[in-house]
Design goal:
Layout: E1 2-8, H1 11-26, E2 30-36, H2 43-54, E3 59-65, H3 78-87, E4 97-98, E5 101-102, H4 106-110, H5 114-120, H6 125-136, H7 152-159, H8 164-175, H9 177-183, H10 185-195
Parallel strand pairs: 1-2, 1-3, 3-4, 3-5
Length: about 200
């Protein structure tokens, strides 16, 4: 048995973890607990939180949006941010930390299935809308972009009646982990790293 604390951005991500990841990972002997940060994610802010969690769990990981990360440089990448998070905590705790940044937002994952979006939002026209966005980004949900106007959550906000904290986890649940992992390779690699904690 391994106990893992997951520092997450907010309520939406907390619900997502509880609905999909907790039962799946528990079946593998990995007991995860999401701990929300309530927004304003930055290296400085998460450093204290992660050190605190590292003393309470066997391992600690993160589930933050790249788009929402504060004070990042224009040249910053997912990998450089993950390295900075790891380096921000004390040396003896770093072996317990698996930093993960979701490209570009949690809502990007939802484009893994336009069918699930249309079904949960109960609007068939959303099937065409979401399919066109997916096609625009080479059928890779994790490429749906980093922009104030066209970020995944903004697309939902401007084109649907999407409510983040309820519809987001519901759409993800309808998609299922198998499809999410198949469509989102970064997300799949993170889950694979968590699964390896018990091997």
């Amino acid at each position: 048995m391994v106990r893992v604390g997951i520092s997450v951005e907010g309520i939406t991500e907390e619900r997502f973890i509880k609905t999909l990841l907790v039962p799946y990972l528990q079946s593998k002997g990995i007991f995860v607990t999401p701990v929300p940060m309530n927004g304003n994610i930055s290296v400085d802010r998460v450093s204290y939180e992660l050190e605190k969690l590292a003393y309470s769990f066997d391992y600690v990981t993160t589930f933050y949006d790249f788009y929402g990360f504060k004070h990042k440089h224009a040249s910053e990448t997912k990998e450089t941010l993950q390295s900075k998070i790891k380096e921000s905590i004390k040396d003896h705790l770093q072996r317990k930390l698996l930093p993960y940044i979701q490209m570009y937002e949690f809502e990007g994952l939802l484009f893994s299935s336009p069918e699930a979006i249309a079904a949960v939002l109960q609007n068939e026209s959303h099937l065409t809308w979401a399919n066109s966005i997916l096609a625009e980004f080479d059928y890779n949900p994790e490429k749906v972009n980093d922009s104030r106007e066209t970020a995944p959550s903004k697309r939902f906000e401007n084109n649907t009646h999407y409510r983040k904290t309820t519809h987001g986890p519901d759409i993800a649940e309808r998609i299922g982990l198998v499809k999410l992992r198949e469509m989102c390779l970064g997300f799949d690699q993170w889950l694979t790293a968590l699964e390896r904690l018990v091997s």
